[in-house]
Amino acid sequence: MEIVKVNNLSTIFGKNIVHDDISFHINEKEIFGILGGSGSGKTVLVKQIVMLDSIQKGSIEILGEDISDLDLNQSQDLKQQFSYLFQFGALYSFLNVIENISVMLKEYTDLPADLIEKIAYTNLEIVGLPKSCALLYPSQLSGGMKKRVALARSLAMQPRILFLDEPTSGLDPVSTQKINELIIQLRNMLNITIVVITHDLETIKTVLDRFIILKQKIIFDGNITQALNSQDKFIKDFLTNKGK
Amino acid sequence: MQNSYFELIQIENNTFSFSLFNNWNNQTLSSTIKELENQNLSKESKLIVDFQGLSECDNSAIIYLISFFRTFQEQNITLHLDKYEDIYRFYEKHYQDNSLDMKDEESTLERIGKKVYEAYKESINFIDFVGKVFYYFIYSLFNPKKIRFQAMLKYIDTSAINALLIVGLTSFLVGVVIAYQGAVQLEKFGANIFIVEMICITMFREIAPLVTAIVIAGRSASSYTAEIGAMKITDEIDAMRTMDFEPMLFLVLPRIFALVISLPLLVFFADIIGIFGGMVIAYLDLDVTFTEFILRMGQEVPLKHLLIGVFKSVFFGIVIAIIGCYRGFQVQNNTTSIGKYTTKSVVNAIFVVIALNAIFSVILTQIGI
């Protein structure tokens, strides 16, 4: 089933054409990658999908609904179906780690406070952080830790679609590998669709089921085997030289 | 006991079969939890749990079930996990209780101690900061090339020239109010002409410097704190240090110089506007013409009052700029602290200006000026 569908999307900032008439879809339960050089509009694209940025031309459908004509209730319902991991975490600086992870559960469910805390602590363990940082505030965490707390926060509500903006940048190789394994495990167990923006070659090779490469237009759509067999020089360079 | 989410049947003494149905998720879970708590299960009960009828199950439900089963003895729980084997084992492996080994609540004495120590450290920090400012001030006197004249002019523009309107308006209104209240009293005694001394001395000596300093403290102390604080959050200050751009020379001293130069000028401006306000009321209420007013001012009001007011404002400028910058450097790496320290800086700056004014007033009167 196609869970996200992007039709003929164009985005222009000033004179800079970011997306030129792009169309693609994301299947349910797949780990989908959005790749491209710096400034190729990956984050803009995902922000348009999650309704943060407005669509200039074209349309986007999520779970069969066109997101540009939703009323308030529909968009609230839809927003609870997905969660977004921001590149730098975007944790609330006035809440501590556990409060950050449980904020959505507190707001949108009527679960007992004790259970919400248990869910938060368990998610903290899942992303590989020690219990001792539970009561710290974001300003006391390192960049990598912030990112992992943010991942725990996105997982707590168990979204149907999880958007990850560079989940492994700024992490050490061991943590990167763990996060990659975690992404695959989550997809297999929780039946969620995961959309990843990444530059990390290891992630591209081991985690992604399918990906697109953006360069104004979509210059590639397929899996890693197809990409490596491609004759296009840009794609080859992109997947071999970059990052190594 | 049966409802749409589970079925609990007693098979034999203290052994139950517990079957789960339907969709367990974070929206439906809380009512189920309440019902489960009402069952007469004891810690020694044996449970045979069947997940087969469960259509869907999210992580909240799994984590709840794990914590629920942990209240029983492990050997008494038999699980038929079916297709939920993976997810259950995954969360079981990562399950973490919410009990923290927290220290006991701190005692009142401990809290007082902490506060006192914090206050002590803060005052040391402040003295250290003032010392640094002084050091770099002397340093820049010997190395005039290091003085950032352009930045200084920029701050004079933003902190003083842009403030002319508000300073003028406030002092005009204050001048009007003083004259108006004074006029009523003086008229009773027929001492109309004394309005000149009353307005000029209070305005020159106390009101104009104080009102101007308070307006500038509210305007510039806050903006200095917010500017420097935002630079600290974005690591710009650290970047400057690595390039050997000393923040004291680049950020603090130009701001102090700007206020030291512009505050006396602003006070002089406020003097003029405030007295003008008084003159208007004197003319309208007491029939003292502008010419009379100005002539009497020249004859009867000593110049020293004006000079004292301008002299005081130099110190007001120094403390406002120092407090604004100091609080800016205290901002920590989170968004709430900018608001916190901006508030602190404005409150501190206004208070210190008023306190300093009181000290000046006492000292100058005591030595007979």
Q: What does it look like?
A:
Chain A is an alpha/beta fold. In chain A, 38% of the residues lie in helices and 26% in strands. Chain A has helices at 42-49, 72-79, 97-108, 113-126, 143-156, 173-190, 201-206, 224-228, 233-240; strands spanning 2-13, 16-27, 31-36, 57-62, 65-66, 82-85, 161-165, 193-197, 210-215, 217-222. In chain A, strand 4 and strand 5 form a beta hairpin. Chain A is globular, with a radius of gyration of 18 Å. Chain A starts with a strand and ends with a helix. Chain B is α/β, with parallel strands linked by helices. Chain B has helices spanning 29-37, 59-69, 85-94, 108-142, 149-159, 164-189, 195-233, 236-242, 247-286, 290-300, 303-330, 335-366; strands at 6-12, 15-20, 22-24, 46-50, 54-57, 77-80. Chain B has a four-stranded mixed sheet, with no helix packed on it. In chain B, helix 6 (164-189) runs parallel beside helix 9, helix 7 runs antiparallel to helix 9 (247-286) and helix 11 (303-330) packs antiparallel against helix 12. The chains are: A alpha/beta (244), B alpha/beta (369). At the A-B interface, helix 4 and helix 6 of A face helix 1, helix 2, helix 3 and helix 12 of B.
